[in-house]
Amino acid sequence: MDPSWWRSHSYHGFDLSCTNDNKIVLKMPASSNNLFVERIDYTSQEIEIYYRSNHPPREFFDLSLSSSPLQFMPGPHNYNYTLFSCPYLEERLSYGFCLIKLGLYYLDNPENQTYAVNTQCSVDRIALVSCTKLHDYTSIPDISTFAMKKIMKLHWSKPSCRIAKRWARHRITSQFKDKLGQEAYGTVFKGKLSSELLVAAKILNNSNENNGEDFTNEMGTMGLVHHVNVVRLVGFCADGFIRALVYEFLPNGSLQNFLSSADNKNSFLGWDKLQDIALGIAKGIEYLHQGCDHRILHFDIKPHNILLDQNFTPKVSDFGLAKLCSRDQSALSMTTVRGTMGYIAPEVFSRNFGNVSYKSDVYSFRTLLLEMVGGRKNFKVIEDSTSQVYFPEWIYNLLEQGDDLRIHIEDQGDAKIAEKLAIVGLWCVQWHPIDRPPMKNVVHMLEREGDNLAIPPNPFCSTSN
C-alpha cells in the first residue's frame, strides 16, 4: 500500500497492541506512556481508557485539542486546566484537586516537573513561584479522579480510525470463519468485534491488478456516508496482504433472498413491506446523489447489494464500483463498463443514449423495482404459449391496456401498491437518461397515496428487438 495514502486515511501515531497479560494498550503519538483500554464500542465509536502509572501522562491533555482524532466525551465534571513547568518542591504535592503532578514528558526540562492546575482554583493560593506557564486546555475530565484508576471515555468520529487496525486484523485472521457471501472483489464473513457488535467483514481479493484501487475506492466513499438506508462502515484493516472492510452485520441478508413470487407464502414479504423497502432504497440512493458534499454514483444497484436489518430496513451496500463527482457535474467520463449485466444503463455501454451520470443508478433501480413486482429476474422471458416477451415490456403493455398485472394479489390495496411500484419502475426504465426522473422525484412518487400516477411514455416502442 502507498504509505502516503495510509497516512491520509488513518490516525497517525495511535495504535493498539496487546500486553503479555492480554491487556489492550492504546499507544499515543510520540509517547512512551500508554493508556489501557477497558472497552471499545464500535456502534457508538467510543473507547474507554485508564492508566496504571502514579501520575496522569502529559500527552493525555493533547486529546482535548481540535486536531486530535480522539476526543474526550463532554460531561458535567470536565474542567479547564493550565499546565506549568516548575522546579520540583514537596509542598506542591498537597493541593489535591487543584494541582496534579503529571508524568514525565519527553520534551520536559529534566530538572523540572509538569503540573496541571485546575482553573476553578485560585492560582494565588498555589505555590507557583519560578514556574513557567506551558499551555491552557479546555474541557478535560477531572484528572484527580482519573488518577484513582477511574475509567474515561474517548470518542472517534471517522470510521477509518487506525484504532480499528490491529483489533480488526486480529479478529479477521482468527475469528471470521462464517462465510456470508461472495462479491466481485472479495468474500464476506460474519464476525464479532465485541460482545455487543456483530460485523460483516469483506476480505478483498489478494490481487495487484489495480493496486488496491477497489479497497481505496470503497474506503474513501464510505467514509463520507451516514444514512439509515446505507450500510455503515465500522472500520478497516490494511496490513500486508490483508485488506478488509468491516461493516455492521445485517441479520436478514440481501433482498435477493426475498425476491419470490406472491404465490410463495413462505418467503414473500408482503406488499406493504415491499413498498417500505422500495422507498428506503430510493431514499438511500437519493442521499448518495444529493446528501453528501460530493455526489456518489453507485453503479451496482441490484437486489444482492441491498441488505436488510432485523426490521427489514434496507441498506445500500457494496461501493466497490462507486465513483465520486461534484454535485453540479452533469456527465461522467468512464473508460470501462461498470456494473452487473441486466442492471447496467444503456448509456454506460454506448454514449449514443446520452452521458453517464447519476441517472445510470436510476435505471438500475428500475430493474430492482420490477423484480420486486414480478418476483423473478426481469430479463428472463415470460412464456405464454409459443411467444416470448421481455418482462418490463409485458408489464408496460398490461398497464397501458388497463389490465391487472396478472400477479397473485388478494387485496385491492395490495394491487394498488404493486401497480405503483411497476409504474415508478417504468419511469426509471426510460432509455435516454434525460427522460428518467431524479431519485428525489422517485421518492416522492413512492410516497404518494392513491392510484393517480401517470404511466410514462412507452420506452419499448423502438427497442422491441
TrEMBL record:
GO molecular function list: ATP binding; protein serine/threonine kinase activity
Assigned keywords, A-Z: ATP-binding, Glycoprotein, Kinase, Membrane, Nucleotide-binding, Serine/threonine-protein kinase, Signal, Transferase, Transmembrane, Transmembrane helix
Organism lineage string: Eukaryota, Viridiplantae, Streptophyta, Embryophyta, Tracheophyta
Gene Ontology CC terms, in alphabetical order: membrane
One Pfam family in the UniProt entry: Pkinase
Name of this chain's protein: Protein kinase domain-containing protein
Protein's cellular compartments: Membrane
Domain Protein kinase: start-end pairs: 174-461
Superkingdom of origin: Eukaryota
Membrane protein topology class: Single-pass type I membrane protein
Cited InterPro entries: Kinase-like_dom_sf (IPR011009), LRK10/LRL21-25-like (IPR045874), Prot_kinase_dom (IPR000719), Ser/Thr_kinase_AS (IPR008271)
